[in-house]
Amino acid sequence: MSLPVLLALATGSTPSPTPVSPTSTVPATPTLQDAQESATHAASWVEENWSTWLAIGLRVLLILVIAAVLRVAVRRAITKLIDRMSRTAEAVDGTTLGGLLVNVERRRQRSQAIGSVLRSVASFLIMGTAALMVLGTFEIDLAPLLASAGVAGVAIGFGARNLVTDFLSGVFMILEDQYGVGDQIDAGVASGEVIEVGLRVTKLRGANGEIWYVRNGEVKRIGNLSQGWATAGVDVTVRASENLDRVKATLDDVAERMSKEEPWNELLWSPIEVLGLDSVLLDSMVVRISAKTMPGKALTVERELRWRVKRAFDEADIRIVGGATAPLEEDAVDPAAAVAAPSAFANADSPQSMATTPIAQPSSAVPAK
């Protein structure tokens, strides 16, 4: 032992302990009993709440399964409905729906557009409702969420109102079948043949080959020139002195021969009719001819009909006059009226001066007184 310790023992005093700072803490070592108590509390908490967790999980799983099955069933039903509409479109010719869906491309695009819109709407409604039910299962207050979604929807709708207007207009145009691919339409802002129908934009090809992109929301009126049938009308202006019976007989002969020849017998959907006198003027009269034709073929039929009428009238010696009235024959003009008056510096013996010299009146003899 060391010397200081021996001296302390000899004197009988005990050594003082080392002072411990009051701020220093000694970590408590967990004992086995503490671990057992924590495990017991955790097990009891799990035992108390496992039924709630299982119920919530089963409810969420049931909601998702029902939503998925319902979504698949609705989408298949929509697809079958669209396919059936496409197949039965060819059987409506001659009915009140006649003239709709006149070609394969139009049926295909319209079916795809309608099916896409309906499937998207159905999926949004079903999955959106399922998401709200799942959130409600977890006892989440949906009022603030719905309020925020409403405000966001109003803001987006106000900022993109033109896009929303175009989309909704496109949906109703397709559902109502106002026009389709291959139709000749007059949309007000542009006219031409429809080459593509979209939910936001419709593509038209103009008469000169240009392509017009027309927003569906900008279309206020639509004139479809390809649905149903078209009317071919020709006005024939003849002299008022022509024999009406001979004119009508000639036109009837032209109409009968044209109706029997190909391909005009397929383009004409009704007999060519001589409607009669459209107007009678002082020196001319207008005879009108009309017929129903295949959509979009009225101009072709009119041109052929004019050609045949002109040839038939030439053979029958019937004169066709131009314009609403025949030009009147002008009276003979005095040749001296175009001769200018002589100038003061002109030669008085020139032929022009002699032509404009007034004829001297014969003087009467006065008897001398």
List its salient traits.
elongated; alpha+beta; single chain; 369 residues
Question: How would you characterize this protein structure?
Answer:
- The protein has 369 residues and is of the alpha+beta class.
- Helices cover 48% and strands 14% of the residues.
- The protein is elongated.
- The model is unreliable at 1-10, 20-24 and 93-102 (pLDDT under 50).
Q: pLDDT under 50 segments (min length 5)?
A: 1-10, 20-24, 93-102
Main-sheet strand order equals 4-3-2-1-5
- Rounded to the nearest angstrom, the radius of gyration is 50 Å
How many helices?
9
- Biggest sheet overview: 5 strands, antiparallel
The helix-strand sequence is HHHHHEEEEEEHHEEHH
Q: Report the average pLDDT across residues.
A: 75
- Strand tally is 8
The helical percent reads: 40-55%
Secondary-structure map:
Elements (H helix, E strand, L loop, with lengths): L2 H9 L20 H57 L15 H34 L4 H18 L1 H15 L8 E3 L4 E7 L3 E5 L5 E5 L7 E2 L5 E10 L4 H17 L3 H4 L5 E8 L3 E10 L4 H18 L35 H6 L13
Antiparallel strand pairs: 1-2, 1-5, 2-3, 3-4, 6-8, 7-8
Helix pairs in contact: 2-3, 6-8
